[in-house]
Amino acid sequence: MNQKADYINYKFKRADDAIKAAEVLIKEGFWLDSLSKIYYAAFYAVNALLINMELNPKTHNGTKSLFHKEFILKGLIDKKFGFLYDHLLAKRFEADYENFALIDEKEVPEYLKSVKEFILKAKEIVSSK
Q: Which of 18, 52, 98, 127 is most buried, by CB atoms within 10 Å?
């Protein structure tokens, strides 16, 4: 395998691990921490997609911008995943940095389900190239 493929596989492994961690955190009722892990699962999958295109953003906002430019606006990935990513980024920031972050516990399992779907789509795109 080459270095690029190894790095992409590493990012998808991190995404899968973040999903597993989120599942444990949800089971134990750690909603804010699980939300952070769900965001990072999506973040790692987006990074794998971008690396596959020889793009390596340095910030979360740079990752978001390139994801939209290269995948959402070009119609390679459904807009719902763009909205999901943006929403999770904002929620993750709130969960990690706000003094009194609140979250609807019923939303978290839905975020998890959607990010799992997104990761599968990202893996499909990478494997087809």
A: 18
Report the C-alpha gap between 85 and 90 in whole angstroms.
9
How do the domains of the chain map onto residue ranges? 3-127
Q: How far is 125 from 69, CA to CA, in rounded Å? A: 16
Architecture of domain 3-127 in this structure: Up-down Bundle (1.20)
Torsion of CA 39, 88, 61, 94, to 10 degrees: -100
Which residues are within 8 A (CB) of 37 and not within 5 positions of it... i.e. 6 or more apart? 18, 19, 21, 22, 25
- Rg value, the chain, Cα: 14
